[in-house]
Amino acid sequence: MDAIQKQLLEAVAGLHEIPVGAYNIRANGKSEGRNSTEHIEITTREEGDGIIIRIKDGTRKESVHIPVVMSQAGLEEVVYNDFYVGDDCDVTIIAGCGIHNGGDASSRHDGIHSFFIGKNSRVKYVEKHYGSGDGKGERIMNPETIIEIGENSVMEMDTVQIKGVDSTKRMTRAKLKEGASLKVMERLMTHGTQDAESRFIVDMDGENSGANIISRSVAKDDSRQLFQSVLNGNAACSGHTECDAIIVGNAKISSIPEITANSSDAALIHEAAIGKIAGEQIIKLMTLGLTEEEAEAQIINGFLK
Amino acid sequence: MLELRDVSFKVEEETKEKGILERVSFTLEDNKFIAITGPNGGGKSTLAKIIAGIEKPTEGRIYLDGEDITELNITERAKKGISYAFQQPVRFKGVTVLDLIRLASGENITVAGACQYLSEVGLCAKDYINREVNASLSGGEMKRIEIATVMARGTRMSVFDEPEAGIDLWSFQNLIHVFENMHREIHGSILIISHQERILNIADEILVIADGKLVSRGSKEEVLPALLEGVDDYSGCKIWKDGGVK
Question: Which residues form a coiled coil (chain B) (predicted)?
Fold first, then answer.
């Protein structure tokens, strides 16, 4: 792996070297390294590009790293990764995609991740997107996440896209069985002329299922963002979606929360707020000795932390 | 030493000019504790904002140790050692109490160091240090954190705008000690805007501002009795005595 790829790997997965546990590192469309463990098996798909990750029943306190790095301009790929998580598991899955584009042609990675989670399991899924390079070619990522959560299982999804991705269309669909819950924390920052869309569709089908979808975003310069969150309460369940966005410069942000109760026992809440940084927040930090620019950076950092 | 010389502040209101402050002059000597009191709407908070640089006076000058700071912005004044506690503290999503105290102290102080300031303002430090300074905190909690940030700055000039507002009676006695300690330990000047007799009692000097003017100043012995007896003269009741709103 070259220096640029290593740098991308560190940015998206915090990895300096080969990770502990199961992993698959994909660089410029090829597998750079793979490790299966006693409980976690990674195999190549027979149809289409991508991998299948099988996590056995009862796998606890283990992690899977599946970072993707691309440093070759003009590379476009569609990758399918399927995760089968058994019953009674407690695992952390760390995905991430870093694109370095120093050329004029667009680089694109569309990752389609499907999760099939069994009963009484807990899955933490962390995904970081990062772009670098000063070429004219766009860095494009279109992640799609399909989630099926089994009885009394919990999935926590933590996604971050802070820098360098020119265009993103994110789609997340989830179906929740009895007692299942989904928590999403999405953090997004766009600048320049970047464009980001993030849509969530969650079906709470089982009794006592619950979803909490939180998005915090900052749109700077002439960038554009769209956030849509659709919660369907099809049984006695509780759902909450919240979108908080800070707008800076000439950016544009749309927020479309949508909640539908198909059961009288569904309790659903949506909150959405878009606004500039409050002037008094800047003033408060200035009275502590920060300049206006430092104050703004501090407020944004805290907001996206 | 802080000196205000003929400071006036006017705002445009429906094409008419309205005077908020009119030729206010006073000096705050080093290591002195001044309390400013007077009726609501009299211009006290505007005066505090003018000292912090949040508002610019329409006329008059402000000097800090002889240097004209009238044109300096908020950051520049903060760096020169002026601290300001908001009457309504500002909330931040994602910024923790620890972050705020660290920003205030200007260095990466330890968690224990930051906790010390919280304890001094009567907050159980471990319950608060990692909390976000957001809407989950009550008004009284916010006020105490605000005071802690000013203490953490430890500058030679601190301005507090009604620090007692929203603080319960139980904590109030401690608050008095906080100001007494600050006065004693930091060796700085303190200017507090307050309506509380007990705060006025510990001040070296009391200034009364009403209708935008400095109407009296002196020691508590000189000012307090007249203030308490003649409450009506400074309150809205005066308008009724004068024959109602014209």
Answer: none
